[in-house]
Amino acid sequence: DAGVTQSPTHLIKTRGQQVTLRCSPKSGHDTVSWYQQALGQGPQFIFQYYEEEERQRGNFPDRFSGHQFPNYSSELNVNALLLGDSALYLCASSPEGRVNTEAFFGQGTRLTVV
Amino acid sequence: GENVEQHPSTLSVQEGDSAVIKCTYSDSASNYFPWYKQELGKRPQLIIDIRSNVGEKKDQRIAVTLNKTAKHFSLHITETQPEDSAVYFCAASKLYNFNKFYFGSGTKLNVKP
Fold first, then answer.
1. DSSP letter assigned to residue A9
2. Shortest distance, CA A113 to any CA of chain B (angstroms)
3. Does A43 sit within 8 Å of B99, measured CB to CB?
């Protein structure tokens, strides 16, 4: 089991551009959450996907959107990139239907906006 | 919403000493409190967690205590080793809320050999 995998690992984009990040959850996991981790800070919850729908959302603007596919993999899209969007983006997966068990994190995508 | 505060932001100890990291939370409905260790360039990994119906949990050199009344919880690492050096994050969540966590700002632990 490869665990949670994210791609790409690093990305450099220019202000105003759009970016898509990808996450494949751990086998057997169907709930995926995305987090933004700025340098020196704790991860901040962006949103959570289950059954291909956004179920919960944190305090992030509409420029942040996502998608979940039938195979439970997920994408995070960020439009109109700002310098402040530079961060490590993490996804976490866990299985629905169980009392809160360990959430597994991917290694993240390091996004740099220049 | 939930607000989790974590102290200290950096902690330096001598190998073999104990380390304590403290967190407070604001939402009394939170009932699941995991601790994650993140080494440089790596993913956060769960090291221990505690639910609100338990006051203390221990796993070898690591223990977590929870005071629901005061809304604070702490991580205790005994007999620290250089490989314990990392950033530690506390988090708060609700059972059945799966992988939605509110994280503290992190504590950088440095264990000097």
1. S
2. 19
3. no
